[in-house]
Amino acid sequence: MIDPFGRQVSYLRVSVTDRCDFRCVYCMAEDMSFLPKAELLSLEEMERLCTAFIRMGVTKLRLTGGEPLVRRNVMSLIEGLAQHLGDGLEELTLTTNGSQLAKHAQALAAVGVKRINVSLDTLDEEKFARVTRWGRLGPVLDGIAAAQAAGLAIKINMVALKGVNDDEFDSMLEWCGREGLDLCLIETMPMGEVTHREETHLRLADVRAELAERWTLRHSDYVTGGPARYVTVEETGQRLGFITPFSHNFCESCNRVRLTCTGTLYMCLGQEDAVDLRKPLRASMDDEALEAAIRRGIAAKPKGHDFDINRVAVPRHMSVTGG
Ligand code: SAM
Ligand code: SF4
pTM above the 0.85 mark? Predict the structure, then answer.
């Protein structure tokens, strides 16, 4: 699958649910309304869709959401998808808030998941409760420990928030170093209406310059085809990534598309271009129309986003498209 700008699309991110057991301030409104369950693809339909993508050249799948591990029976989908590992699919992974991870870590490793991303914006219990509104730090740390015990490699995603966790970058780097975890700092993106996002927006270029005064940040060639740019922290030996949608344009090497839990394929996180795959999926058990719709989507992949922190780029929340 090659888009009009010559980029090979090999990475599919799937939002398996728009629901979540947290209400992170930058991601959701507290009184979020979620999609009616009847609108959602069944897990079997999701598996069929993902299988079509793998057949067409997707080698990497990431399950996200909302919180992927709150979807009932999600392990059956993961098990089904894992059957493709080594047979077209090279990597199956997920991004999670960690709240349910302790329960699932062993099973994830057993089916062949090797690496996961866990979102963790602070190591301070009180702050964690404030940022996530409904979350608690303890179970997330237990989940991370369980994932480590199961042998999963972990990358921590930390959204950088001015006046909230900007005093914690050093302690988070130290903690990740001790625990053997990579860390990725994320700049807030203007997706979905939430209040006060501009006030907490922090330019990661500035954060990076400050960190470089205290840590030896060595250029790293590590690339994932994604938006993160990595350095290696010499003092800890771990990788540190930066996702900076405003200060660095990462679109030219974009290799991904995103599927929502209702079967809409978005070609860019920051644009509205989309095709509906649910209709062709349900219209026939034969995948011909589905594959044609996927090809139409790839042919319409936009060149890039045009994020501006002062206005909402797209009205849908990150939890709909999957971060
Ligand atoms: N619930 C899971 C989690 O939190 O990891 C997966 C979905 S969440 C939408 C994926 C990632 O997007 C998380 O790391 C989260 O911090 C990040 N995120 C959510 N809203 C964001 C925003 N407006 N700007 C930047 N990152 C955001
Ligand atoms: Fe839920 Fe993840 Fe959004 Fe937080 S960032 S509200 S955990 S989907």
Answer: yes
